[in-house]
Write a structure and sequence with these properties.
homodimer; 552 residues; alpha/beta; six-stranded mixed β-sheet; 42% helix
Chain lengths: 552, 552
């Protein structure tokens, strides 16, 4: 049933505008225009052509990079128009031939990354004051419309032909899985019966009806389209609280040293043991000489420890997802001076209103969410010399379990900071401490008000770590935990972790990664989609799909 | 990958205590005791033996019936002890050999029904004032613990051996999919790292640790167990607002007339066209001579129209799910006197505080939820003579789409009633009108305040129906809609409908049917569970499972 297991194409998550193949970024004062212009022959694999602005992971890596750079490098940008340079085509969505030729795991990771990118657009709107306007200059299908849905507003050209559509169900037998179904009814609040029709009509909806059904905000004839888009973008830009002028800071390339078993960055190291299917991820705390003022932060730029360390962590997590599918368990360690982490945390907390500090904090938040959403088991090991304090302690809170050595001979502590208090929220809208202590919400405030660090005994007593073995038990207990985890069904673990990590309220974001993604993953392995006669397999061929019509 | 497609075992959803094979119901004043005593050889299929109080659908049908009867037949029951008559065994969960031998669709429908039964326990606690106490007299594994989780409180015997456990992931490579993962972290608010450990340790957790981890509310040594359970049940019973004494009303058997293509009840008819994969479900409104007082309602008993009609509707939906897997589209019609429906609705609304009326209303609510959760497409057809008013109009609101004939020559109207206003809430905690008009919440109140019926034109204008074709277009438009629906991938429709039907907030209930169920369905077709060397396949054999360790 599964596509023949090909080697996953090589992909780098590090790019920059001068290297973009598929997007053009143009600045005009407070308004940037990000234009899709996908190069057909520049897909990650030669097996498909990216026609009609269809996309693969490589296209989306560039989009994610552009959004990220607008936040850090261009504080003067207050609104972004997302449009296309192709005549009469906005975007045809994810490339079907790419999907069809991909393994199940690749499909799932591709969708996860594209979902994260769209959520990053919404995060930039909500938290950075950058408003996004989708200017649909032509056909806008599937993932193309899902990209538009992630924007604050959608303007569609009214040329008698251009429509928005979600043709996945009628044409491909799969879902619009990049948030489409969720955003249609939950964000744009399209009536569910109209959404039902929309989701089954391959040709989509255009013109006045698209506005009436709330699928787009406005339609304009071709003659007025560009002017109306430009005017609306100016209006959106005027609502921003970003600085009137730059400069921003440059995001320089992330270039780890890679060997067969290690990936080494400046503050992050990944040690991979494929035999045991375990990787060790170590994050180092800040060294001496960190900034203590906004000017020094601006001057340090992307070398300021939290930004540098979390960018490297983000890259390491993405590498693990895509390039190391057999690594099931990730042992998380930290090292460094906890007081230095706490000092950086306090600096970030004190200056959280400054545009750059705000960006750094939200980036840390998004990276931690990426960890929450990574379908591997994380076990945090807290040993003497660890840097598990404040924002770095979020790594232990994000882990599925934590083990803290309780050795009277070796000082071993953890600490909290104001950064554990509300700036690094999970997808469910709660902090990791709030999610952890759902049963005792009052405990969260008490913990945050306490000053000073926690010994292993105290951390265990306060529920901040899972276990605190003593020095006699430590090696065996940790080894057994890691080994027994590695022996379990990877699918059951993925499902279990996806359910246990997101206790408490659900948000549009958790609905996308919970309900929508889980159903899509199910459909992605059903014969009706990917079997020899499934709809995804049959697409673009002469043959029509044949379904097993049993309903499940 | 899938188990050989056997004919699904015959199952009736109609039972009664004197016919129970697996449960004993005993009354003692305000406290009832429902004891599991599964007969090994009385499973639905001879292919497996129901050892150690493990269960199949037949066992759960009896449980659902018992809960239902306690509500209607025994208003004097204020608390229920759920326990077992087997020595040292409470319940071993769903029968593994049954699961292994079942088709994917059967597994999914089995889990859906058992989930609905557990939610019915919580519904009885929340809305009927019947408190449930799980008295775990022995080992309590998997679905057994999930049943306990649905109770208000859990008491576990502390005999050095009895533990609660969710061994699905470590032993079977699947999830505890009957709400287990969700209720552990969301209802009992077990810390997520402890839940992670609990979910991977086959032997479970017992004694004091089970209390400390919040997995159970109390443990007592064998010598005290029964007395403590009895005492606590009395305390729980004392919190109830139910009548001090009966009598209740009898729920008589539902005995439809069944032919190859029809199932006919007194107020419900199901016409099945397997060639087109379409069924027509018709519900008739009340006839003349309906009760107008509480005494008359009590006297009418289960023949009172709303109870009779919705019991039949519930049975019809369950039959469709389990016995008609190829029917993908269900055309929903009603007939009868709308004023009579509105009169019954007003009577129910006026007496909603009375214990029996309360039960009837909550039963209607649960039946409509059963429809929301049925993975078939529902299209409501509103034609002259229809009974789509008030509570019956909920059927149109629950449908994926509605079509209303707009023919100037034929009077055709719909109407709302107070029953559309808040008594028949969906799983998401909103009414169907609120879910429909998420974008315009003020419209809901305006519609409910309006008196009088809506013509097709008005209903369309107010957004109460999807389409209102005129008499020239009606036949073609409806036929095309039904035909084109039947041609789509049944899996994609299941996923699409599951996402579009539950816009708005998520609740523990929607999390169970969204996030948890969707992941479980995914795992249920993965080779790591059901392949030749999968864990579910290997269970109980001499061979160990072999996994593809790629993480997804």
């Amino acid at each position: 049933m599964e596509a023949a297991a090909k080697a996953a194409p090589a992909v780098s998550f590090d790019t920059s505008p001068e290297r973009y193949r598929h997007w053009k970024l143009a600045m005009d004062g407070a308004v940037a225009t990000l234009s899709m212009d996908v190069q057909e022959d520049a897909g990650l694999s030669p097996d498909y052509k990216l026609k009609l602005n269809s996309y693969d992971l490589g296209v989306d890596v560039e989009l994610a990079d552009a959004i990220q750079r607008l936040r850090f490098e261009h504080p003067e940008v207050h609104a972004v128009i997302i449009t296309s340079l192709k005549e009469r085509v906005f975007c045809a969505g994810a490339n079907i031939f790419m999907l069809r030729g991909s393994t199940h795991a690749w499909k799932v990771n591709f969708c996860k990354f594209t979902n994260e990118t769209r959520l990053a657009i919404e995060d930039a709107s909500q938290h950075s004051g950058i408003k996004f306007l989708a200017a649909l200059n032509g056909i806008c299908a599937g993932g193309g419309y899902e990209l538009a849905l992630a924007c604050d507003e959608i303007i569609l050209v009214d040329d008698g032909n251009s429509a928005v559509s979600l043709p996945e169900t009628p044409l491909l037998g799969v879902l619009p899985g990049t948030g489409g179904l969720t955003r249609v009814v939950d964000k744009r609040k399209v009536r569910r019966d109209l959404a039902d029709v929309f989701g089954t009509v391959a040709e989509g909806v255009k013109g006045k009806r698209a506005v009436e059904w709330r699928l787009v905000d406005a339609v304009y004839p071709t003659s007025q389209f560009r002017a109306r888009v430009a005017a609306r973008a100016q209006e959106l830009a005027a609502t921003s609280d970003r600085p009137a002028a730059g400069p921003g800071i440059a995001l320089t390339p992330i270039r780890p040293t890679v060997t067969d078993s290690t990936v080494s960055y400046s503050a992050v190291t990944l040690d991979i043991d494929r035999g045991k299917r375990v990787a060790t991820l170590t994050v180092s705390g800040p060294g001496p000489g960190q900034p203590s003022t906004i000017d020094e932060i601006l001057s340090a730029g992307d070398q300021f420890w939290p930004l540098r360390a979390f960018r490297e962590l983000d890259d390491a997590l993405l590498r693990l997802r895509v390039m190391e599918p057999l690594i099931g368990t990730i042992v998380v360690k930290t090292c460094g001076d906890q007081d230095a982490v706490l000092a950086v945390d306090q600096l970030l907390f004190d200056h959280q209103q400054h545009w750059l500090v705000r960006e750094i904090i939200h980036f840390m938040k998004r990276t931690l969410k990426r960890m929450d959403l990574t379908s591997r088991s994380f076990f945090a090991l807290i040993e003497p010399g660890s840097g598990f304090a404040g924002s770095l302690f979020e790594l232990a809170l994000a882990a599925d379990r934590s083990y803290m050595l309780d050795d009277p001979e070796a000082e071993n502590a953890i600490a909290l900071s104001p950064m554990n208090g509300g700036l690094l929220k999970m997808s469910n809208g709660l902090t990791r401490l709030e999610t952890r202590f759902l049963a005792e919400p009052q405990r969260v405030d008490a913990l945050l008000q306490r000053t000073g660090s926690f010994t292993a005994e105290e951390a265990l007593e306060e529920g901040l770590v899972s276990f605190a073995p003593d020095e006699l038990d430590w090696d065996d207990e940790v080894r057994l935990a890691v080994e027994s985890r590695a022996a379990l069904s990877p699918d059951a673990l993925t499902g279990m972790e996806a359910n246990l990590r997101f206790a408490g309220p659900e948000t549009m974001e958790t609905k996308i990664f919970g309900r929508l993604t889980a159903w899509q993953n199910w459909i992605f392995i059903r014969p009706n989609a990917v079997g020899a006669k499934g709809a995804l397999t049959a697409y673009g061929s002469q043959s029509r799909p044949e379904f097993d019509f049993n309903r499940t």
